Amino acid sequence: MHTLAPSEEAGRKASLARLLQLASPALPVGAYTYSQGLEWAVEAGMVQDEAGALTWIGDQLEWNLGRCEAPLLARMIEAWTAGDSDAALELDAQYLATRETAELRAETLQMGYSMQRLLHELGDFPADLLDALAIPPEQRDAFRGSYALVWSCAAAAWRIPLSAALTAWLWSWAENQTMAALKAVPLGQAAGQRLLQEIGSRLPVAVERALTLAEEEYSNFAPGFAIACARHETQYSRLFRS
Questions:
Q1: Which terminus of the chain has a smaller tally of CB atoms within 10 A, N or C?
Q2: Is the whole model's pTM more than 0.90, yes or no?
Q3: Which fold has domain 36-232?
């Protein structure tokens, strides 16, 4: 049986702490201000209760995040780990092309910008990676890229195992969606925990698929989701920015 050396054990614990930091709702990137079309689905009567919220969030996981967003994120992490920032930026261009509405695109760019500023303000993030995320390097406020790009860069720099990183990304998204459902439907706290329990049980399958899915099989074909996000842009009364 292999026993971790003290330095290995310390590295593993540090990686776990960083993983929890990345998945935390306290991460100051503004995720709580977005519903990704869920608010319009509630307004339209498509989501009216706990069962409807589970269907909405579960379908997004199955047909959108699990088959497109998560695989692209995995490849970004691999590119950063290999030191290939150009490949990561190319993957990010593909990711941005999947943002089908102005609100979805603005959401990921705003969160990416906030995440990049946070990494700079932490004071211990590798300078060469901060430079790779900014144009030009001496003007780090000139950000390029999505939240997925910056988040994947952090996951790679902090040596978070790929499977764990994808699980954290999907869990964080599911938690934000659940919190949006609690406010918009509205639902009670116990209902929210039941939603997270069920969605959480589906994450291992989604992560395994993301790690093994061939590039030609990537798909975010979810027209109902795209319509909801587009309709939200003109929704009269709303709490969320998407």
A1: N
A2: yes
A3: Urease accessory protein UreF (1.10.4190)
- The secondary structure of 174-230 as a DSSP string is HHHHHHHHHHHTT--HHHHHHHHHHHHHHHHHHHHHHHH--GGG-----HHHHHHHH
Cβ burial 87-109 (10 Å sphere, 16+ → b, else e): ebbebbeebbebbbbebbbebbb
Long-range contacts of 120-125, Cβ-Cβ distance < 8 Å, separation of 24 or more: 125/154, 125/157
The predicted-structure confidence for 150-209, as pLDDT tens digits, reads as follows: 999 999 999 999 999 999 999 999 999 999 999 999 999 999 999 999 999 999 999 999
Q: Please, what is the Cα angle at 224 between 30 and 209, to 5 degrees? A: 75
* Sign of the dihedral through C-alpha 18, 23, 25, 29: positive
Instruction: Determine what percent of the chain falls in helix, strand and coil, rounding each to the nearest 5.
Output: 70, 0, 30
CA distance 176 to 216: 29
Distance CA 42, CA 54 (A): 13
Q: What is the rounded end-to-end Cα distance, in angstroms, of the chain?
A: 50
Interacting residues of 225 by C-beta distance below 8 A, sequence separation 6+: 36, 37, 59, 60, 64
Q: For 194-209, how does the pLDDT look when each residue is reduced to its tens digit (9 = 90+)?
A: 999 999 999 999 999 9
pLDDT, residue 131, reads: 87
* The pair of three-digit structure tokens given for residue 96, joined into one six-digit string: 């941005």
